[in-house]
Amino acid sequence: MAFHIDKLEKRWIYMVAGIVLMAWGIQIYYAAQGWHPPSNVEVIDSAQLHLETGVGGDEFSEQNIGVKRDEDGMLVVTMVAARYGFYPQEIVLPQGEPFKMRIASFDVLHGIYIPLTNLNLMLVPGYVSEVTTTVNNLGDYPMLCHDFCGMGHAYMFGNVHIVPADEFKL
């Protein structure tokens, strides 16, 4: 028994099939090129994140988090996200100076978003999330968790103070 497919329906079938094939082609092309989203793949042990294991402690232990300069003079913000807060909760940065943010999750999936900037990271337990950026406008910016992390999610926030470069002190 033969059945009839209307011309308009055939066009839609061909169009959908073409879009699907084009999407597959793009995925295969990028996979073959070895391209992937930029990321800093650095594995850590989230359960040991806060512990001191050597002289001076590890990067994410309590005494080492905050704003510091590295050996090249670049500002590095080291933070920990844990239910239900960012540690340290407040950071001060100079206007117009690039900084690197390194942040790790202690427990579950979190996110960090600073409105009116380009800082938006997903924080996966067991990995260090890293981004380098600059904030050019003075003021206070909230740090918000944008991935639901539990019952206290709405209370997980912090603050970034951007001050004039000549007023910034470490």
From TrEMBL:
The keyword Secreted does not apply. Gene3D superfamilies: Cupredoxins - blue copper proteins. Its main location: other. Keywords: Copper, Membrane, Metal-binding, Transmembrane, Transmembrane helix. GO terms for cellular component: cell envelope; membrane. GO terms for molecular function: copper ion binding; cytochrome-c oxidase activity. It comes from the Bacteria. The chain crosses the membrane at residues 12-32. The keyword Metal-binding applies. This is Cytochrome C oxidase subunit II.
